[in-house]
Specification:
The chain is of the alpha/beta class. It is built from eleven helices and 17 strands. 47% of the residues are buried.
Length: 344
């Protein structure tokens, strides 16, 4: 019997007073202990349990605020299926997505486009005050959450992931992120992106580390200041963010151990410039919505120049010909991931 949210927050239950989440502004930070985070998640699950049933889908329409991960994990805690979406979507776009996933209800911040059907406002104080739900335990293969592809090859499509997908993320902790319970990881992306939700929040919390996020009003070029001020040890972003940061001046980052990149190919010149300016490396990962990352460099095994990295320990990967047969080393083909991978 398994529940993804219970698994993610188990370490935090052992260290309730430790800071799980800090929302960083230019004049201070809003800090959430693990005790508060777990109480809010379970309270949200209890609140949702009065409005939806296990197995039903919950559409999330929110920005980069603590309410987003609370709602996301709260739905999973109660056995429901969250569907994260970009706050930038238009009414026709979100209507099309809703028609594909058929949510029981939508949780939304004011001013964001919503589909037809029941819509409830994001209400973090109400969730924190609500009676907590029990963890909804069940088969690890049951549907846990839904994400949409980016749509680069056509219209965005929904991808169903099981609760067991969080177990596959353990392959990334050392196979890519070099993440420990002592780390303070700052991610520059939006929460609706699987890269941000997974690497920026779920992975640190699974290990009992601290997740740092920038307040929505913080400009991207102000992130180095926050990294320095709040002693970030790992910085995660897409190559676009690294390019922008390198255009300006960078403060000393004595606590930064390394950086992580995903979302698009990392140019070798960009990696080299980051190394020269910060004295730290960038470790790239290759993946997709259907499986998240599965090939990467890491602090223990940096990728050679011009390569994305290596199969993460535990992955079963092959290069295939057009007929789906494995090719020998040195041949060019299609990259295949085993259908037995728990993250697929």
């Amino acid at each position: 019997m398994f529940n993804l949210a219970a698994h993610v927050l188990a370490k935090g239950q052992e260290t309730p007073e430790k800071i799980a989440l800090a929302v960083l502004g230019l004049t201070g930070a809003e800090r959430w202990s693990y005790a508060r985070l777990i109480a809010a998640v379970c309270g949200c699950g209890g609140w949702l349990g009065e409005r939806a049933a296990p197995g039903e889908r919950i559409l999330l329409r929110a920005g980069n605020t603590p309410a987003f991960p609370v709602a996301y994990l709260g739905a999973i805690a109660a056995g429901m299926v969250p569907v994260a979406t970009s706050p930038l979507l238009t009414a026709p776009e979100i209507a099309r997505m809703a028609a594909l996933i058929r949510p029981r209800l939508t949780l939304a911040e004011p001013g964001l486009a919503v589909p037809d059907g029941p819509v409830w406002p994001i209400d973090l104080p109400a969730w924190e005050a609500h009676m907590p739900c029990d963890w909804h335990m069940g088969d690890a293969n049951r549907e846990g959450y839904v994400v949409f592809t980016s749509g680069t090859s056509g219209a965005p499509l929904p991808v169903r992931h099981a609760h067991r997908a969080i177990l596959a993320r353990a392959m990334m902790h050392q196979g890519w992120e070099g993440l420990t319970a002592q780390d303070r990881l700052l991610h520059a992306g939006a929460f609706n992106w699987t890269y941000t939700m997974g690497t920026g929040l779920l992975d640190p919390w699974t290990l009992g580390a601290t997740a740092l996020i920038a307040h929505p009003k913080v400009a991207p070029d102000q992130l180095p200041l926050l990294m320095n001020r709040h002693e970030a040890t790992i910085f995660a972003a897409a190559p676009t963010h690294f390019r922008r940061l390198l255009r300006g001046s960078l403060p000393g980052l004595p606590r930064l151990r390394h950086a992580l990149s995903a979302g698009e190919a990392l140019p070798p010149a960009l990696r080299a410039e980051w190394r020269a300016r910060t004295g730290t490396d960038i470790h790239e990962a290759l993946g997709m919505s259907e499986i998240s990352t599965f090939i990467s460099g890491s602090p223990d095994r940096p990728a050679p120049e011009g390569a994305s990295g290596f199969p993460q320990p535990g992955r079963r990967i092959a290069v295939l010909d057009d007929a789906g047969r494995p090719l020998p080393p040195g041949e060019v083909g299609r990259l295949g991931v085993s259908t037995a991978d728990p993250g697929l």
